[in-house]
Backbone:
């Protein structure tokens, strides 16, 4: 029998430590304190399907398995608590994959890309209905997503995507002038963009904690603070934890950034840190600049800025590409923000009148970027009964609903449009191993910071900086 033993950096209880919980998780636990329904696993257990990971992907997979095959015995384990990872740390943008349409075309064709885009748009509606039907108050608000240029150099970054959408004869986004984009959020540092009206914003932790409650009510056996330590192949797959052993017909790894430590999955993606801050409520200040609360923004730089408001009038502002992980270890990217000063400077540049707003909470969290900029699923070679999904590249809430369908189909042996979708074709490219990955990533991130500084000031970017900054994980895919 083959053992797959997880490295010491694998998620473990206390990562992130409770005192390092995100703003979203603190709000979720304030509304619904821990209920004792998901104890640590002690001893031996058996199930049909064991799901590892209690975030969106794991919970959607468990729920989809029960929808497809009622009566299936599903267990779910998480190293921390459900939502303790990226599902409780992201910005709460619920949006289709239209912004990734060019990447979808690259891994499939225009017809399949359109199908997935339409399914992702439907997923936005499905999640809204799920919240309503199950009485989950996740601060859900229909919204428009603005893909903006926050410097003149970014103008037109969406042109290839819009051309591909036009070729597929679908028009979910519309172009806006510089003046139109400025009016939406009250900043003079917008220079054009495209708008997708079919989106929403929410508290991501309240969504995932609500999903946990629904899964428990439907009979999923959930064990929090139960990290996976090893897998053993055999007639039934053995899932080892510090105090227990699960025997399962099928296993689903839904651990996202941490999947980089399993087999060669990490060669297909790079993990970087994202810093996010949330201010104290300031609805009058937002109203004074004319910000429409139904607009959520990301700009077009590689180390993107993202910003939105909350229902109680807070400003959320974040920045990606803050730092790179060494050894494909996402566990070190939790807690206090790594470059809060840089995030504040970008916020002040875009919104000078909001620069003095007190920051109530800030955190850093890992994001995994695949070589295709899209999630992918597959089966482990060393432990054949184990399936995985990873690589969301920063767009995970709606996409995780689709990946839940993919992983449920694979785990149940169903043959359908999801088991054969473009997401089940793992990228064939690879990223060099550490230390080359870590050193190279930091060189590129430094070049990107320098390029942003030049472009934000409207200055010409030196050729060496431009060349280094042009290196992208997608360059390693084929």
Residues:
């Amino acid at each position: 029998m083959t053992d797959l033993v997880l490295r010491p950096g694998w998620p473990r209880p206390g990562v992130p430590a409770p005192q390092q919980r995100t703003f979203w998780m603190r709000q979720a636990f304030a509304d619904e304190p821990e209920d004792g329904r998901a104890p640590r696993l002690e001893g031996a257990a058996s199930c049909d399907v064991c799901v590892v990971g209690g975030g969106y992907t794991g919970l959607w997979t468990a729920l989809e398995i029960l929808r497809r095959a009622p009566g299936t015995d599903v267990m779910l384990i998480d190293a921390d608590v459900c939502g303790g990872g990226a599902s409780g740390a992201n910005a709460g943008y619920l949006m289709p994959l239209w912004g990734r349409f060019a990447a979808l075309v690259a891994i499939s064709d225009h017809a399949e890309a359109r199908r997935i885009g339409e399914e992702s748009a439907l997923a936005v509606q499905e999640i809204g209905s799920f919240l309503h039907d199950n009485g989950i108050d996740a601060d859900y608000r229909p919204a428009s997503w603005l893909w903006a240029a926050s410097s003149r150099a970014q103008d037109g970054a969406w042109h290839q995507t819009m051309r591909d959408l036009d070729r597929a004869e679908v028009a979910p986004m519309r172009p806006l002038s510089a003046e139109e984009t400025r009016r939406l959020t009250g900043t003079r540092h917008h220079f054009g963009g495209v708008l997708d009206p079919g989106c929403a914003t929410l508290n991501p932790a309240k969504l995932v904690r609500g999903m946990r409650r629904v899964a428990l009510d439907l009979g999923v056996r959930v064990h929090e603070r139960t990290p996976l330590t090893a897998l053993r192949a055999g007639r039934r797959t053995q899932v080892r934890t510090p105090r227990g052993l699960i025997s399962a017909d099928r296993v689903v790894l839904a651990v996202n950034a941490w999947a980089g430590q399993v087999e060669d999955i990490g060669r297909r993606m790079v993990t970087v840190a994202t810093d996010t801050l949330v201010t104290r409520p300031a609805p009058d200040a937002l109203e004074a600049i004319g910000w429409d609360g139904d607009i959520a923004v990301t700009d077009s730089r590689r180390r993107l800025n993202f910003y939105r408001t909350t229902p109680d009038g807070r400003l959320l502002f974040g920045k990606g590409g803050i730092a790179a992980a060494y050894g494909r270890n996402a566990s070190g990217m939790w807690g206090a923000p790594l470059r809060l000063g840089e995030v504040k400077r970008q916020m002040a540049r875009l919104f000078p009148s909001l620069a003095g707003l007190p920051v109530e909470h800030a955190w850093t969290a890992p994001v995994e970027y695949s070589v295709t900029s899209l999630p992918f699923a597959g089966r482990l070679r060393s432990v054949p009964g184990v399936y995985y999904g990873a690589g969301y590249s920063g767009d995970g809430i709606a996409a995780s609903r689709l990946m839940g369908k993919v992983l449920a189909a694979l785990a149940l042996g169903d043959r359908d449009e999801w088991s054969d979708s473009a997401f089940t074709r793992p990228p064939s490219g690879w990223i060099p191993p550490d230390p080359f990955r870590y050193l190279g990533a930091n060189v590129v991130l430094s070049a990107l910071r320098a390029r942003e500084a030049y472009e934000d000031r409207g200055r010409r970017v030196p050729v060496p900086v431009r060349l280094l900054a042009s290196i992208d994980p997608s360059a390693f895919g084929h």
About this structure: The chain has a mean pLDDT of 93. The two ends are 33 Å apart (CA to CA). The chain is about 30% helix and 20% strand.
